[in-house]
User: Fold this.
Amino acid sequence: MTRSNPQPIVEQIELSHPVLSANEGNAGALQETAGASYDSRHPRQGAFAWLSSYFSTDPAPAPAPTRSTIRSSISPGIAPTLPGHLEGVRCPDVARYTEWVRGWLWSRDLRKDLVLVGYTLGACIALQYGLDYPDEVKGLVLMTVAARPKTRPPGTYEVRLRAAEDVKAYDDWLQYQRHAMKLVEPGLRERLIERHRQVGPLSQYHDLKAIDAFDVRDRLATLRPKLLLLRGLDDPTNPPEYEKEVHDAVPGSRYVKLSGAGHFPPTEIPDKVNALIEEFVAGID
Assistant:
């Protein structure tokens, strides 16, 4: 059931960082990190918005890194950092993050014809957005996503709590991040590791908690925006095939399995991911 109130909660928008346009100095690093250089030339009114895993690799002041940020590749580019990632107060769940993102977009008069591309927590937010406000969303591209609480190895949460308190546990946590990103180009991987250091394990802990409380299985069949699902076949974490569950439940969806990609398809095989997104956007009515 979609929400009847069309007005977003705009009072929650408290931006700590400047909006980045495609012409500003951080754009190149931002594109490289979020999945190379996706450039939408599709003639439509609206926004291509990316909810991805990292923000900018620039050492200069820039929006804080996060497991879920939103970026638009339609001029002017936009790049807010979700609250609770270095600055601000985190949202308690996916639904509240969705309202924050919606308010941020509405404050910039981006209210319809949205294409949301999401990864991990960002994918949950995009899916929630498409379910709650289908009249505003034209399409969704979701990666590393589940529509129900994920099954994780024992100690998944505890290792991040320990990493916030113990030096050795912290080092072990960083090594695990490197392992998970083993298919990412080495130079980029180290820049992303530096972002992990800045954000810290507690931010990741809270993001995982939000992801694992997300459950919209009973609503999937009602999803109206066009849907593309992407999954890396070489994910070292070997998660269950959650994407197929979503695909099977959403009529007309497309599901693509990507060889040579693992847990981070946008940064592992950006050219392929960008080509799929370009094809997807071009095919939206």
About this structure: Confidence is low (pLDDT under 50) at residues 7-46, 52-77. The CA atoms of residues 147 and 216 lie 5 Å apart. The two ends are 24 Å apart (CA to CA). The longest helix spans residues 167-180.
